[in-house]
Amino acid sequence: MRHFGLILLLLLGELVTHPKSCFGGDHHTQLVEDVASAQVMLSSGNYFSCGLKKGRVKCWGDNQFSQINVPRLRRPRQISAGGKHVCALDADGARCWGDNEFGQTSVPPLRKPRQISAGFLHTCALDADGVKCWGNNPRGETVVPSLRKPLQISAGFLHTCALDADGVKCWGYNEWGQSNVPPLRNPRQISTNSLTACALDADGVKCWGYNGWGQTNVPSVREPNTISVGGGHVCALGADGLECWGFDGNGGNSVPIFGNPRQVSAGGQHTCALDAGTVTCWGDNEYGQTTVPPQFNNP
Prior knowledge:
By secondary structure, the protein is mainly beta. It has one domain: 7 Propeller (Methylamine Dehydrogenase, Chain H), CATH 2.130.10.30. The protein has helices at residues 3-12, 32-35, and strands at residues 40-44, 48-53, 56-61, 78-81, 85-90, 93-98, 115-118, 122-127, 130-135, 152-155, 159-164, 167-172, 189-193, 196-201, 204-209, 226-229, 233-238, 241-246, 261-266, 270-275, 278-283. A hairpin with a 2-residue loop joins strand 8 and strand 9 (130-135). The two termini are 31 Å apart.
């Protein structure tokens, strides 16, 4: 539904003018080394979803900016769905498609890219030389600070976070403290979206930034191993399965019954998860973003 995007537009004022929404999709993306051996990779965007299965990328849902029209890719190994665009890593490097109003799909030269993250109107990549970001930059979200040895990158709405050898660093828009990283003990994963950021560290899940829907009020998650921040909700995988919290419009936090979920990707107002080789999506389906194509329903 569009009311959630309108609420954020009221919060953000003149920063972005768009009739739909002002947040992207899930921005926890696996590193290429992790994905290479995986059969399926999921990435939920704003009003659309994407999946990578056995070397083929398929996207479904909203197509206002041709973001689900996947170009020819050669041996794709990672995908990242953003607000209105998608990026992938394949044998030829990095490719992005969809909305390019701010140059977010115009990939700069990259040397051996290892990870790519599509934000709402900007994109970041981790390559052999470090982190590079491009696209919209009204709050400095593409101005990368000094990083000693970046390990993961996550592009959000108007801010960006990186997991570095020295810890987690975030930069860009900070009105709700989404770029003020709290103390973390041995962080190992980050995820950011809209106005919120989360990390996994030795003590569990920690979230900070905007909390209008309780998305930084982390419930008990035993032995968490994956975190994914959506438009107004957060999901985590742990020893007891999948847990989601925050904005619950359209049943986004009503997690289906799973046997052994292995992946989760929180989008604008929907979520997708992988369980026993089958993809299930739930929540807002206004554009068909939770209607999973048949090829992802077979182990």
